[in-house]
Design goal:
single chain, 95 residues, mainly alpha
């Protein structure tokens, strides 16, 4: 079914972003973390450059699992991309 991996990837990335922000919020409350926004965003990103070789070496790249994981990696890599806007990340999220 076309589009399903991307839809699931966006939903999962949004969920991981919420979990990351909640975790960092608790750490900030405890005085351990400084920035909820930047640290939470860093926790929710994915290194797609690591996923592709691992999936390829294991033979999973052409399977439905590989497709789903690659879609999730793409969303995790490009979802938090602040380069699309010249404003600071905190100003983009506040708008």
């Amino acid at each position: 079914m076309p589009g399903r991996p991307l839809q699931r990837a966006v939903l999962c990335w949004a969920t991981s972003l919420i979990i990351a922000y909640a975790t960092i919020g608790a750490l900030r409350w405890a005085g351990i973390a400084v920035s909820i926004l930047y640290t939470g965003s860093a926790l929710a990103t994915t290194a797609i450059g690591i996923l592709i070789p691992v999936l390829s070496d294991s033979g999973e790249l052409a399977t439905s699992f590989g497709t789903d994981l690659l879609a999730a990696g793409a969303v995790g890599e490009f979802g938090p991309d602040p380069a699309a806007d010249d404003r600071p990340l905190h100003a983009q999220l506040a708008a």
